[in-house]
Amino acid sequence: MKIALIAHDGKKADMVHFLSGYKDKLQGNHIALVATGTTGLHIEKAGFKVQKLLSGPLGGDAQIAALAAQKELDLVIFFRDPLAKHPHEPDVQMLMRICDVHHIPLATNLASAELMIQQITTTPTYEQ
Ligand SMILES: O=C(CO)COP(=O)(O)O
């Protein structure tokens, strides 16, 4: 199972805090984490093993979308900052669209991420 993690700058602390609550479950061998570049750095510093792609504005969102299109992702957690402008907004929209096209679960805020991660980490197939 592979989970993609992305957070806009105003939400990176929220992402690290969120993941810290699931550290035990997320560090199992059957769950791989992949993230956009700067989000990945923050996650790594918090002690997680994570594959880092390009930074979002440099194509990281597009790389995550490509993984989703290839059905290589089981969940995308994307903490968007709805109060900030982003030069790569078309990439953000494209990523969300691709998730919808391919029926990839997409959590764009803390409340939905909590629900989805609890579900996915307690699904018997994925339990350690
Ligand atoms: O910009 C992002 C999402 O749109 C996230 O990119 P970074 O993780 O590199 O900051």
Task: Show the helix and strand layout.
Layout: E1 2-7, H1 12-20, H2 23-26, E2 32-35, H3 37-45, E3 51-52, H4 60-69, E4 75-79, H5 89-101, E5 106-107, H6 110-122
Parallel strand pairs: 1-2, 1-4, 2-3, 4-5
Instruction: Give the low-confidence spans.
Output: none
Q: Might you state the CATH topology name?
A: Rossmann fold
The tally of strands reads: 5
Estimated structural class: alpha/beta
Query: What is the N-to-C succession of helices and strands?
Result: EHHEHEHEHEH
Can you identify the CATH class?
A: Alpha Beta
In spatial order, strands of the major sheet run 3-2-1-4-5
Could you say which small molecules are bound to this protein? Answer: 1,3-dihydroxyacetonephosphate
Number of helices: 6
Secondary structure: helix percent: 40-55%
CATH architectural arrangement: 3-Layer(aba) Sandwich
The amount of beta strand, in percent, is 5-15%
Which structural traits does this protein have?
single chain; 128 residues; alpha/beta; Rossmann fold; five-stranded parallel sheet; 6 helices; 45% helix; globular; binds 1,3-dihydroxyacetonephosphate; methylglyoxal synthase activity; Methylglyoxal synthase; MGS-like_dom_sf
What can you see in these coordinates?
Belongs to the methylglyoxal synthase family. Residues 1-128 form the MGS-like domain. There is one protein chain. The chain has 128 residues and is an alpha/beta fold. The chain has one domain: Rossmann fold. The protein contains 6 helices and 5 strands, in the order E-H-H-E-H-E-H-E-H-E-H. It has a 5-stranded parallel β-sheet, with helices on both faces. Helix 4 (60-69) packs parallel to helix 5. The protein starts with a strand and ends in a 6-residue tail after the last helix. 1,3-dihydroxyacetonephosphate binds at residues 6, 8, 36-39, 55-57, 60-61, 86, 92.
